[in-house]
Fold each of these.
Amino acid sequence: MSTDSKEKIKLLIENSQYVCLFIVLIGLFIGTMYAHGASLFLSIPISFGLIFLMNYVIGILISLRKETRPSSSSFNMGKVPWWGIYILISLPISFYTIHMFNVEFGELENTRSIGSEKIKFISDCKAKSEAIIKKHYENQGLALYTDYQAIGNGIETAETIAEKYNISAERVTNIFGNTVEEIHQNTKMAFDNQKGKLNKRIEPCFDLDINSTGKLAMHNFKQKEVIDALDTRLQLMKDSLEIIKADYSTIQLELPASSDIELELNKKSLIDQPLVLLRSNPFSSIVLVLIINLIILLPLFLSERRKAPPKSNKINTVTKH
């Protein structure tokens, strides 16, 4: 083979080595991002460090395949130890790259679905409670307006009405308005303080990030972060709503039971659970291991194997003296 051809083959092998490792690097980086909560401080050193080591080992294996003697760069260890090192490095590479496939082609969509269900549950509870609270205080305002008319007739006093609605007598006497509508509006405003206190207690339970749905849909490794924030909100609902409902028993708030909230909390994303996903897809994981390592080893398979020394054509003869 000519020197020019050998140089071309050498260049092809070197380029294929870098291309194959770059492909694996992408999957490895994405897999570590999902597994470690989108932490660049972990994903960058893990993925680039493993690929750097793998590049070095593949280079050694290629040289051992071509040379008759171990080179100085291989520390004269021979093939077997370096294949052992290859296996040790390929295990985490395969593990995280398979996780990328498991997330991208299954768990990511499942996580988005779980997040959407949690958002809907919280939003529905919020809308229902707001409607009940609004209706309750509108009715209170209407009832106060009716009782306020009785003060002028001497049937009721401001003190009795104030005690009945848990507001101050001064607030009752200060109800004003030139028309029926204005007076009615003012009686509803008399409950603004009570309504504000209730909303202050209940709103944190339903406080959602308005960008939650958008973050779930995007491809930005934020899905697990959204799920964790929703679970924090659901846990607060579970801890607080029963107490709030008991404190405001006259309003008859239709808040979700703890068991219903628990069902939502039990819907878990496995984006950061690579081992669980690996075990749940054993067959596809084995296939992916073979494909990933085939890509990594492709430059080795393309490299020229060491040729055995040519056999001698001489025929053994006996020399007679």
Note: The two ends are 45 Å apart (CA to CA).
Amino acid sequence: MDTNKIYQMYTSKTIDRSSCVEIQLGKQRKKRFKDSSTFFTTSDFLLLEQTIWDNYREYSPNSTVKIQSNEWVKVIEGIKRLSALLQNKVYQDELIYELGLEAHDKESYIENYLIINENINKMLLSFIEWIEPKLATNEYITIAG
């Protein structure tokens, strides 16, 4: 894992459209690159997939998944738990699983976990800040992979 990598959310104007995941308001069927959406690179979104799956068993990677707002509340709670784990200054094997890290990333992650965790946590907190207010006004929020 690259310690200089910036984990972040993107807008419809700043994302590389060829390899991204779009989080859309409402029920959608495919990527639309709407201004109201938020985006992740495919590799950054992989870090969220295990937490989403743990809290919403109907999630399927590389497909469009419409999730009701009340289900998103559970997912967000899972992301908040992950955020708390990322803030721990002591290395935890559990994070390898939670972040869905591949074997080839594991060694680099272990060597640089404090910096990597801080960067990933900033992305998670930005996502929580983006999505929580939208739950009250949207019955569904869709993941278009």
Note: The chain has a mean pLDDT of 92.
Amino acid sequence: MNFLEKYRNTVDEVNRLSLIAFILMLPYPNYIARICWVVFLVTWLLSGRILHKPQISLTKESLLPLVPVLGMVAYFFWGMLSVAWAEDKAAAWEQIGRLVNFLCLAIVLIWGVSDRIRWQQCLNTLVLTAIISVAVYMFLYYWLHNTERAFDKFNDMTQTINWFDVEELTMHIKHRLYYSSILCLAVPSVWLLHNSWQERFGRTKTVVYSSVIYIILTWGILISGSRQSLITLIVIAITLALISIVRKHKATGFALIITSLMVICVCLKLFHPRLQDTTFKEIVAYNPEKGNPALEPRIAIWHVALENPEQYSLYGVGIGNAPRYLLKKYEEKNWPMYVARQYAPHNQYLSVWIELGVLAMLLWLCLSFSIPLFYKGRTRQAALLYTETTALAMFTESVLGKIDGIFLLAATLLLIYLINREEQTK
């Protein structure tokens, strides 16, 4: 083996390991994940793939799978154009700095990812890190509530933790929606890995392992405190059931639908700390005359954001400037808490509407929900299940406003790409 071959093998292996490390770090604060992502991009560049011919052709079959990531790139350039009329240039460029990751990802996918990187390994890593993270956060939650005991073994004062009344497992270490979204991605990953596990462990062990993992992931989502992710979990469960029905496993499909709905509804009613002793009417109540206008801040945010759509519907206020636009509205209404927190729209579709106009919002909405249509076979099923997590998360969070959201979307697109690549080579 000559020097050039050794160099390529070493760089490709570091590239593979950095991606695995990136996936491992997704359930945790993004500091290490950022480093792993940069190493992945740099080692891909050092591999010299960009010096070769792109691994796509100008055919429908070759270009369609790239439409989702190219749509993200189009959003990036549209955002760059809007910097020209954005009032807060610093916020605009900060957002562009996050979105440039989609441009980098598009380049990687166009020229191709190393054959060393297999989707099965990536999904196994995702499932493993999701399971471990539940234990890690439960451990941290307990000891951060019992610091006296941690520092003094003779101190018998401990705070009893009621694990059925945990409002936010990750506390402020990791935003609950982004954390629980990773757990939601792990749920269909277990299903996608079924055949691989069955070949390795056998049918009985695979069913047992899968069932235990589903319980752990559901439990993690429940105590994370994210209501949106519980809705997403229900949608994923129903989708998996419908796929089973289409495959003529009707009994299994209907059983899965009924069981999932019953279990999740019972958990929501009896155990979810953010829904106990609160009626739907109280959640959606809104009184703009009060300093604290709503029990659920998102209700007030969406109300004020949609009061004057004519102010931004044509071409928007500029990328990254939705929080600034809303801040002025909070000040006008004299909402001190909202001014102090500088709440963003907490809805990605609304964010795009405010920042780039109604046409951009409609295109983004179509892109977010149409991703599965650009694939075939098993990849379409995987894309549907993964897209449900990201598209639904965008209803209650401005996902692109944080690097955690960028990483969530980037990881999703990359996993779909890897599954599709193997599907096409069969």
Note: The chain has a mean pLDDT of 89.
Amino acid sequence: MSGLGWMVLALALLVGVVVAGEWLLARRKGSVRHVMAERIVLLTMAGGFLGAPFWWRGDPDAFAWMLPPLAGRMLAAASWAFAVACLLALLRPGAAQFRLIGVMLASYLGPLTFAILLLHLDRFDPARSVTWSFFATVMLLLPGAAWLILAFPRSPAELTSPMPAQWMPALFGSVAGLWGTVLFIWPAGPVASLWLWPGDALTSRLIASMFLTIAAASWAARGSSRLLVTVMASVFVYGVGVCLAGSANLAAGKPLPVAYLAFWALGGASAAIFLLMSVLSRRTGKTRL
């Protein structure tokens, strides 16, 4: 299928999902601010769920620049992780959840867009339809992310009673942030297992953006058990996705990205434990009541 064909198909699917979501959200009552926030989150969720399969398949006209197969699958995993976070925000709407989505979007798109404009514009072909759709999406979501952060400032009322293992998101987020920062600033380092795309700085920075997003989200969710559940659900989805992406490399006869697999497998396992402890903690609390 041509690039224009992919764009038309993706747009049609996006419109269909957004219309369905709009029909569901229209039943809710809320302020104009909450209505706007829900629509931004809905658009992000729809784009995440719908874009991921194309990027996982590695369709050449599905993304704004050519991605190596592993990077394309990791992008798809990040997309699904975002979609799950947005779904949880829509299922349990509130100022804190909306702001968290804003933080995640800003952390993912902000540094990447700055790097693209400063260093990587030569990687984009204006003759490709997907190039324009990429920049149009960024121009919509970045201001939307900024608005979510500014319109829903953090409140002390969001702090909840301590839940078990709150140190897990903080620790994992800190390590992810350190790795992501180094990879973003220095995309062609000397250790092959850590710098998988030393000749493709833009792709390295794309992958680093998800590391930075998890770090920023972990910090933004501190002190709130509900927000930490959203963050760790995203970590779980991304961890599973990275492990599947690495396994696909093995199936194709390519080297396993061992360091990435180990780190995100640990993250996914930690997230699963955290989420299970959260469920058990809530059930115990209800029993005591």
Note: Residues 44 and 83 are 7 Å apart (CA to CA).
